[in-house]
Write a structure and sequence with these properties.
A hairpin with a 4-residue loop joins strand 5 (46-52) and strand 6 (57-59). This protein is an all-beta fold. The chain has no helices and eleven strands.
């Protein structure tokens, strides 16, 4: 059983940056992909970024050029660097492991963290 814990969320103004971290209690890289997702109030959970075991990344169009996903397998940790934040990025952000989908950015994972709130004010 893998447990995931996100950290690094908070409140920032438009144009600001945050770095999210996700640490796993079990090895989170046992399957091909890991990913970051977000859910805003009243909206469905959406894929933000995914990374595979080779380090290849996939991003949602809305965050391309602003967000960067990375991994440190030695530390069993997943990161999401978020720059040029805007109010539309406000959401609860979740990391995921235990991939069972066909694309890393699809929300088809067995293990999910509890989420960390990101709030961006204009």
């Amino acid at each position: 059983q893998v447990q995931l814990q996100e950290s690094g969320g908070g409140s920032v103004q438009s144009g600001g940056s945050l770095r999210l971290s996700c640490v796993g209690s079990g090895y989170i890289y046992s399957t091909y992909c890991t990913g970051w997702f977000r859910q805003a109030p009243g909206k469905e959970r959406e894929g933000v970024a995914g990374i595979d075991s080779d380090g290849d990344t996939t991003y949602a169009d809305s965050v391309k050029g602003r967000f960067t996903i990375s991994q440190d397998k030695a530390k069993n940790t997943l990161y999401l660097q978020m720059n040029s934040l805007n109010p539309e990025d406000t959401a609860v952000y979740y990391c995921a492991a235990g991939w069972v989908g066909s694309r890393c950015i699809e929300p088809l994972y067995n293990y999910w963290g509890q989420g960390t709130q990101v709030t961006v004010s204009s």
